[in-house]
Amino acid sequence: EDDIAFSAGESDTTKFGQAKSVRYLLYDVNPGEGFNLRRDVYMRVTNLVKELNKEEPWVLVLPPWGRLYHWKSPDLEQIKIPWSTFFDLPSLREHVPVIEFEEYLKLRGEPVIDEVYYLQGFKGGWTKWEEKMNITECNEGTGFVQDEEGNWYSWFFGYEEVYAKKFACLSYMGHATFIKPFLLKNTIGRCVMLPRAEVLLHDHFGNSEYWKARRSMVFAKHLRDIGDEFRRENLDSTDPEDKTELEDWTKMKRNHGDALGGPYVGVHLRRRDYLYAREGNLPSLKGAAKQIKKILKKYNLQKVFVATDAPSEEFEEFKNYFKKSKVYRFVPSKEIKEKYKDGGVAIIDQWIAAHARYFVGSYESTFSFRIQEEREILGFDPDMTFNRLCPDNDSDCEKPSIWKIVY
Ligand SMILES: C[C@@H]1O[C@H](OP(=O)(O)OP(=O)(O)OC[C@H]2O[C@@H](n3cnc4c(=O)[nH]c(N)nc43)[C@H](O)[C@@H]2O)[C@@H](O)[C@H](O)[C@@H]1O
C-alpha cells in the first residue's frame, strides 16, 4: 500500500530532477459537522493537494472518522475509524495521493505533527469579500493545550500519544488553493495539520475538478455489495437491468438518461434533529407518504425504499400510510453494524436510494445532496433526481438546485 501512496512522490522526484522528500498534509473539520459535509471538505482539500503536487510531492493524510454527533448507536466504539471502512482507497488515490493516519504514524515512527495552523474567520466577520490570511491570536477556545516541554496536545482523533510541535491560529478568508504559497514557503515541517478545514472554500464549485474529486470518492466495495444484495433480494433491482454498472471512475462517463434505475422510488426522509434545524421545510410523516403515493402512481411503481434516520416507531407509522405499496428500509444485522458502524449503514442507505428509478430527498440535506451526485455519476435523468419532499402547507414548493455533472 505504501508504494501506491508514494507513486506520485516518485514521479515528482523525476520531474524535479532532484529528490524532494514527501510532505504530509493532515486536516480536520469542526466537530459539529456531519458526515456528508465532511465529504465536501475532503473534496476541497484534495484539490489543494493536487495543486501542491504541481510544485513538490505532498501526500494527504486522511483524518480518522469518529465522535460524530449523529453516530450514537449505543454499544459501538466509533472512533479511529479508517477511511477504508467507508471508501475505496485505490479510487481516492487515482485523484490524489492519500494515506490513512495510522499509516502516517507508522511511516513517521514517532507520533508527531510538526506544525498546526488552526483556521478561523477574521474577528468581527467581514463586509467585503477578499482573499486574505494572517497569523493572529485565537478567536475562541481551540482545544489545543501546551505542556511544560512546549508540545501541543489536542483530541487528535483519539490518539492520545500524538502531539504537535508548533501551533498557531490562522485567520483565513479564501479558496482552498489560496493557502498553497503559505504551505510551500512559510512552513517547513514534514507534516502540517489544518484543523477547521471547512474554512477553506471550494476553488470552483461544480466544475470538472470538483467532479473529479467527487467521482474519486467511490464507496468501499463491501458496502456497495451489501446494498446491491438488498436491491436484488427486495427491490428487483440489478445493475444490468437498471443500466447502472460501475466502471473505474477515471473512465466512466455517462449521459443523462443512460441509467434507468430499479423499479422503486427512493426517498431520503431526514428526521430527528433536522425537524428542528429545518422547521417549516419538512413534511409530516403523513404528508410525506401522500407525496410519495403520487409519485408511485405517476411512474407506475409499486415499491418504496426509505433511507432514514427515523426511529422505528416513526418508520412504522410512515409505512402504515401505504395500503397498496410495499415500503422497505435497510435494517443491518448485528455483524454489519459492528463492522461498518453507523457511517457504513448510512452509506448503504445512500447507495440503495441512489439506484432508484426516481429519487426524492429532504430539503437542503447534505445526505440528500450526496445521493443526487451519485445519481449524476450513474447517469440518471436530472428530473428523476433533483426532487425534494415539500412541507404539508406548500405542496408546490421550490425544487432543489440542479448541479449537473461536468467532465
Ligand atoms: C441539522 C444539520 O443537519 C446536517 O445533516 P444532513 O445535511 O442531513 O446530513 P449529514 O451531515 O450526513 O448528517 C446526518 C447524519 O444522520 C444520519 N442519517 C441521516 N439520514 C440518514 C439515513 O437516511 N439513513 C441513515 N442510516 N442515517 C442517516 C447519518 O449518520 C448522517 O451522517 C448536519 O450535517 C449538520 O451537522 C446539522 O446537524
In short:
The protein is an alpha/beta fold and 407 residues long. It has helices spanning 2-15, 35-52, 89-93, 101-108, 180-185, 208-216, 221-235, 239-242, 274-277, 285-298, 312-320, 334-354, 366-378, and strands spanning 23-27, 58-62, 98-100, 112-120, 132-136, 145-146, 152-153, 163-173, 191-194, 262-269, 303-308, 326-328, 356-360.
CATH classification, class level of the largest domain? Alpha Beta
Gross morphology is: globular
In DSSP terms (H or I, runs of 4 or more residues), the helix count works out at: 13
Number of domains: 2
What can you see in these coordinates?
The chain is α/β, with parallel strands linked by helices and 407 residues long. The protein is built from 13 helices and 13 strands. The protein folds into two domains: 2-210, Rossmann fold; 219-384, Rossmann fold (3-Layer(aba) Sandwich), CATH 3.40.50. It has helices spanning 2-15, 35-52, 89-93, 101-108, 180-185, 208-216, 221-235, 239-242, 274-277, 285-298, 312-320, 334-354, 366-378; strands at 23-27, 58-62, 98-100, 112-120, 132-136, 145-146, 152-153, 163-173, 191-194, 262-269, 303-308, 326-328, 356-360. The strands form three sheets. A seven-stranded mixed β-sheet has the order 3-2-1-9-4-8-5. Helix 2 (35-52) links the parallel strand 1 (23-27) and strand 2. The radius of gyration is 22 Å and the shape is globular. 39% of the residues are buried. Residues 32-37, 70-71, 268, 270, 273-274, 277, 307-309, 342, 345-346, 349, 365-367 line the site of guanosine-5'-diphosphate-beta-L-fucopyranose.
